Amino acid sequence: MAKVIFTAWKNKAQLLDVRNEFYPPTSYDGPDRRAHACAVVEAWKLRGNVPHHVEATALLTDAILHDDAQTNSIFSIRATYSAAFCRFVTGLVDTKIHGQRRTMFQRAMDLGLPASFVELRHEATHREPPSLVVLRKASQRSLEWLWDNYWADIDGLNAGSQVSHDASASTKTALAQVLQEFSKHSESSEPQRQKRKRDQEVSVATDLVSICGSSSGGVKSLSAVLLKKSLFFGSERKIGESMNQSFDKWDSVLQKITETHPSFLMYLCEDLVHSLLFDATKDSQKNASAEALFLWLTHILSSANWESYQQYCPRAYILSACDETATYWAKMLSDRLKEHGGVRKSKSSRRSSLPSAAKKPAPSNANSDASSIIDEKLSAYGWAPVERWDSRALGMTATTSV
């Protein structure tokens, strides 16, 4: 017996019309129809059986249309973005909805959802709403993810999705060829070879950036290819071997890619964490591949060579993943990251505790001039120091005895 599927739309043509309003073709030059698409989805919800991907697209699009500081407050804009984004992520990864006992991070990995979405959802739910810059970027990335994972495959003509699959495969093939060719070359300390090596690093990074730019998923594919081919450390690595040669070989290439595509470092760190913590075959502390992944993560997150790029690393997510995974490498990675944070703090405290002879205090008149300027600016906005703190409750007035 044929299986009956109830949909909120009358036929697939209606769904395709809504898709074209949410994601207008590049050749379209008519009016903006996104608000109409959101209204249609709202009507469909009254009928029921609306897929979560369709509802999430409408919520995120409506949040973007709500982003107008002339008519809406910044707080309401942030709240709308946060609510739409949280509902999008929760509907996909909430284990209570899907029944199977798995963490949200593991569920996100199964779906191919960026793990940073789970961390941002946690921040928006339990802490202050993220900044508008972060929310705007996350909403745009979410709509791109929804296109790739739902809307691109609803035509019924599998040609569209086949072309997308073929393009992704060809991108990975091109990336693998460039990376494998680079990994074959050996290092040398001779000046001539060193100059040739630097020129080659620039050339390889340029080729990889170009390939990534030609495909919407190129940056994510690059991270996947690096790990799949074990290009970071080689499949013959032994436990306890130094990784300095590998760091020296790949650092400049990966950093040049990050300068053009900052999201690459986020994908790379996420893939390294997933491979290290969520792969049962790497649970042993005697596993050479796991040790290499651990050393690469700690190198990127704590090395001075990567200091200017560490702002793009999903540090909060990595710590959360470590806390939720009871493995040897999870504990090692968590301890190392927390230790690194402590070292930074101790350095600043050591600087502040230098002997007075080593410091160069500013002249007292400079301090007083700066203080008076600050006082003048504050007083212009109604701020002024008080001589005595008044501890009475608001609204209470002083009384005099007679």
Automatic annotation (TrEMBL):
GO cellular component: Las1 complex; preribosome, large subunit precursor
Gene Ontology BP terms: maturation of 5.8S rRNA; maturation of LSU-rRNA
MF GO annotations: endonuclease activity
Domain of life: Eukaryota
Residue spans of biased composition, Low complexity class: 351-369
Region (Disordered): 340-369
Alphabetical list of Pfam families matching this protein: Las1 (PF04031)
Protein name per UniProt: Cell morphogenesis protein Las1
